[in-house]
Amino acid sequence: MNVLITVAPTGPIATKADNPYLPTTPAEIADAVEAGYRAGAAIAHIHLRDEHQRPTADLAIGRTVMDAVAERCPILIQMSTGVGLNVPFEDRARLIELAPPMATLNPCSMSFGSGQFLNPPEGVARLAAEMRDSGIKPELEIYDTGHLDACLRLRDAGLLVEPLQFSIVLGVQGGMAATADNLLTMVRRLPDGAVWQVIAIGRANRELTAIGLALGGNARAGLEDTLYLGKGELAQGSTPLVERAVRLARELGHQISTVDLARQTLGLPTPAEI
Ligand code: KMH
Ligand code: ZN
Question: Where is the signal peptide (predicted)?
């Protein structure tokens, strides 16, 4: 099978104080994405930061990052509309005005570590409709069983176009714990034809990424999900994590998906069709 690898170089929470290799400026983010692409990633999950490293939904910064990435490589850009816990939902939702080919859609509100992640139902439905109408592929981030049900309701309301693409997020405090049991429960409940990957936060990153690949899922890798390669071993950027996901996939007999194949898998038009 072909495995889609997503590089997630920055995320909403960590700073350079946590890992000095964390990219936060547009040029650093674009460089990290390009390195991830060269290591095998077909998709780049992008969080924006301001000049103080704070998560931002600033459209000008978003445009700069998207242009910088496009100059370097043809990877599929997946803009995070999750952005960061302190950025209001309405500002985050506006990022789809940048017309990335993909963007995240977080279906529910939840506790998130010591903070809260607010995704009000009406706003989520509107964002889903806007993404559908603009041909932006949502990556549905589900942190609990009820989040999957919420996505299926959006699908039933005609707001999501198949194939649905899920990220099963494990290990956020406030969502499902990072266990193989929870992952299996979620995989069993996915609708037929769903495209999916594991997002394993923290210590269980390697094991759950491997289990996800063995179960037929795709993989995400990068400093957004873990700052470490192993116990006490800081990852020197996202590339070693992408390389590890590629190695795991290949050991399982999978091929690594190109960007063109990723477009086909997700039902996205090729650049010539746009
Ligand atoms: N780091 C993820 C678990 C998003 O990008 O839309 C949460 C997140 C959401 O970053
Ligand atoms: Zn994210």
Answer: none
